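Would you be willing to look carefully at the protein I have copied below?

:::
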Amino acid sequence: MDFSLTEEQEMMCKSARDFLAEMYPSPKKLVREMEKDEKGYSPEVWDRMAELGWMGMVVPEEYGGMGGSYFNLALLLEEMGRACLPGPFFSTIVLGGLTILEAGSEEQKKELLPEVAKGRMLLTLALYESDAQLSADSVKAEAVSSNNGWLLKGAKLFVPDAHIAKYIICPARTPQGISLFLLDAKSPGVGCILLKTLAGDKQCEVIFDNVKFPQHNLLGELGHGWDYIERILPKVTIAKCAEMVGGAQQVLEMAVSYAKGRVQFEHPIGSFQAIQHHCANMAIDVDSLRLITYQVAWMLSEGLPCAREVSIAKAWVGEAYHRVSMLAAEIHASIGLTMDHDFPLYYRRAKAAELVFGDGDFHREIVARMAGL
């Protein structure tokens, strides 16, 4: 099986890498500034990304997008992970856009997706509640029919970029089962609290206090909301893996560069066997996590069944990125712990990404069940 990139894909990756290096050069002062900024992203950079067509990468042409493949989106996310890109791209395009493509009606797609593709609308998906589990049983928020509309009550945790989103896609319990709803984030009764996070990204606790919204804001069939979530979760999970591929590659390159330049005992530390083996182990992990991510991204692009492969990939990639970061920390030693160095940006994101959308143990249980255990 050949996962080598086409000439067009190579050009896309190089163009994205050059653009992001221009916008977020090392040392990544702007990334640190965005961690402190309430919005968490630069609207100017966002507009330029929209001009490049990135927001419409997987939006079909009939809805104003480029109609690109999921695999190409994964390649773009790899470059974003390499650059530590801050902002709502993942929440809007991956979490929000893919959900609307999966569950939205034709009318909803025509209304929402062109705005997403132009970069004019920010979206997010509220998956987690108090137990932080990815399961239908964890959904406790409730929506009841009221006067030709709905009333929603409950709370969601770790909702990315909810404070700047136009709409929040929210799974909630109805008498018919779990349903998906599209909520205006500024509706009366919606409360949003920014949380302090390890990765420095913008995640929120969102409280719904009898929020009223129209009947037509139902996404998909009533009572089938979790079915849609289960269909998009593989793509969301591998999208996060693609980000980790880019981050791990950058950490490896940073460690090798430092090992070449750092001199101890009148020799570069890269000449010592222990450091060489650290770098070799990092390279082995980076190549393996890229290979498995590309394989599953290709399967998802082709519409092939790959639930087992998704869980294998997330379990391996999350832990491998963390291992790469730990070895890089040993190579950098104390300099890698200073806030002015780029390395902590990646280390913190590696740990957070390892946990989101299921950690290694969560996905091992899935693999074990599929093996008949």
Notes: The radius of gyration is 21 Å. The beta strands are 123-125, 142-146, 149-160, 167-174, 177-184, 190-195, 203-214, 218-219, 263-264, 267-268.
